[in-house]
Design brief:
The model has no long low-confidence stretch (mean pLDDT 96). This protein has 16 helices and 17 strands. Helix 1 runs parallel beside helix 2, helix 2 runs parallel beside helix 3 and helix 3 runs parallel beside helix 5. It has two domains: 252 residues, Aldolase class I (TIM Barrel, Alpha-Beta Barrel); 74 residues, Arc Repressor Mutant, subunit A. Helices cover 41% and strands 24% of the residues. The strands form four sheets. It has a nine-stranded mixed beta sheet with strand order 9-10-8-7-6-5-4-1-11, with helices on both faces. It is an alpha/beta fold and 378 residues long.
Length: 378
């Protein structure tokens, strides 16, 4: 059967963090039951389109999926099993925050088939956590992580952040050491971006942020430190022990198909990208009225696909495989971009051989510039 990834967006949060520009909402918990029902209706509407397809990855993200009640998680699992065929070895991830990540939540997640947990640590420094607007402490995170292990999760990913207000190399290394000391299978480390519409954006002139050179040094040092702990980098922001990379996220970066359900969810199926209504009430209303909440849809042109192939694959250590590229687009990547490849390999930002071209950790720091440079030659 043809495979795809299933993404389910849970937009509820106990409190929205100061840096967060994701589609998530606080003070709307009363909509959780109606929202889960709407997810079931939306999934049902895709049953015909999913004939002959099976999901080999499932990702329940947010927002804060652990803000659901255990019974609501069980109900969501029933909707998934009723409407979607999963492969026997499907990777099934659910996100959790330590303030809502309890044994009851973890057991409910395991009961519906989840076998991978993603937990938001961000920092092990309580002052940094307060600045970010997180509502947990490092000690609370450690307790929640231990509960997840005790319940039976054998594949856990932690999130860290770099470039935080007031963060130093020393405090970052303490967070890295704390995270690695918990022995998770996977660690994501994202650089802080000040996005419009966030509390940090309103406070941007007051924030004491590391300069670009300092943040770059921290990123490279973090990558080296995680390598020493056995976490190999496989994407700009992601590190894993051998065999524990995120299969679902790799699907995005390698151009695989995925179906997104829920408010603001995005999909890529049959060469078409489409997305849902972003707000909770609008999503529920649309699904109840017509079974779907799609508000935007576009069929990708060849140029769109070429742009995405280069942009997404250069996010990964795997990079661009020349045989895959020529098979899809009909010309040789290394020949078309030989000038740019020579430029960036000479500067240490890129590696290239007969089989593939990829960015180095140093190259990841200027990935947007490299990609822009490449695309200007098309």
């Amino acid at each position: 059967m043809k495979t795809f990834g299933l993404y389910i967006h849970i937009p509820f949060c106990v409190k929205k963090c100061a840096y967060c520009d994701f589609r998530s909402y606080e003070n709307m918990m009363e909509y959780r039951g109606a929202y889960i029902d709407a997810l079931g209706r939306e999934l049902s509407s895709y049953r015909g389109a999913l004939e002959g397809r099976s999901a080999d990855t499932v990702y329940i993200g947010g927002g804060t999926p652990s803000a659901l009640m255990p019974a609501q998680i069980i109900r969501l699992g029933e909707h998934i099993r009723k409407n979607v065929t999963l492969t026997p070895d499907a990777e099934f991830t659910i996100e959790a925050n330590p303030d809502t990540g309890t044994s009851e939540i973890f057991l409910a997640a395991l009961a519906i088939g989840a076998n991978r947990l993603s937990m938001g640590l961000q920092s092990a420094d309580d002052d940094e956590l307060r600045t970010l607007g997180r509502i947990h402490t490092a000690a609370q995170f450690e307790k929640s992580f231990a509960a997840a292990r005790d319940c039976g999760f054998k594949n856990i990913s932690l999130d860290l952040m770099t470039g935080l207000p007031g963060q130093s190399a020393a405090s970052l290394f303490r967070s890295v050491d704390f995270a690695a000391g918990l022995n998770p299978e996977h660690i994501s480390a994202y650089g802080l971006k000040i996005e419009e519409g966030t509390r940090f954006y309103k406070m941007r002139r007051e924030l004491s942020l590391p300069d670009e050179d300092t943040e770059a040094d921290m990123y490279l040092a973090l990558t080296e430190r995680l390598s020493e702990y056995g976490y190999g980098q496989y994407e700009i922001s992601n590190y894993a022990k051998r065999g524990f990379h995120s299969r679902h996220n790799m699907r995005y970066w390698l151009g695989g198909e995925y179906l997104g359900v829920g408010a603001a969810a995005h999909s890529y199926m049959d060469g078409r990208r489409f997305s849902n209504a972003p707000d909770i009430e609008g999503y529920i209303s649309a699904v109840n009225a017509r079974g779907t909440a799609v508000t935007e849809s576009v069929t990708l042109s060849r140029d769109d696909m070429l742009f995405e192939h280069i942009m997404l694959r250069l996010r990964t250590v795997r990079g661009i495989r020349h045989d895959e590229f020529s098979g899809e687009f009909g010309f040789d990547f290394s020949e078309r971009f030989k000038g740019e490849i020579k430029k960036y390999t000479s500067s240490g930002h890129m590696l290239s051989d007969a089989a593939h071209t990829a960015l180095t950790p140093k190259g990841f720091l200027i990935s947007n510039s490299v990609i822009t440079d490449l695309l200007s030659q098309i």
